[in-house]
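Thread: Newbie trying to understand structure tokens

Hi all, I'm a second-year student working on a class project, and my supervisor (Dr. K.) asked me to get a predicted structure for one chain before our next meeting. I've only ever worked with sequences, so writing a 3D structure as a token string is new to me. If someone could post the tokens and maybe explain what I'm looking at, I'd be very grateful. Here's the chain:
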Amino acid sequence: MPSLRWLEKYRPHKLPFRRHVTRASVALIYRGANVREGELFFIQRARREGDPWSGDMAFPGGRLERSDTSSRHTAMRETLEETGLDLFQQGEYQSRLSDLLTRHHSRWSPMVVTPHVFAWRGDNVMSLNHEAQRGIWIPLAYLGNPAHRSTLQIRTPLGRMTFPCCRYQGYCIWGLSYSMLQEFLRKREEG
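---
Reply by user tm_fold:
Sure, no problem. This is what the structure looks like when written as tokens:
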């Protein structure tokens, strides 16, 4: 069973106002014999008109609903809905990472996203819903290699902006997903 015990000592940054704004959470799902040779799971978001992150690479997840018992529960529920990967039955919860502040994709109000890390002990069978175009496992050794870091230019209402990213087989991981990935990789190196 893969283990990320190095995360047990980690104390993530929790935004103090997170309970007063819209919240979301995502699942960073790891599989493999050890943390150096493992893989992380990403989805490519479905392409939808009006969605500014349409087609982007992301971790499965979504907004908290009233029926969710915690942000961890949200990450598990959303992962099951989007991908068919059942973290309730085949995932081993490891830890959470730091909260990140973003905005709703449909308006400019703030939203806090909490990433949760799980070790995967299931098979490769996926059942993607309308929110995910593709699911892909990417080797951590690749993701952690500085040679695969790049930049992405985006046209915004404020002008062109350049963001750090990681490119893999035609996919580009950037934005919040890239920030979460970098925190995960930093903590792995420190542990």
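A couple of things are worth pointing out once you decode it. Residues 5-190 form a domain with the Nucleoside Triphosphate Pyrophosphohydrolase fold (CATH 3.90.79.10). The chain has a mean pLDDT of 86. Feel free to ask follow-ups in this thread.
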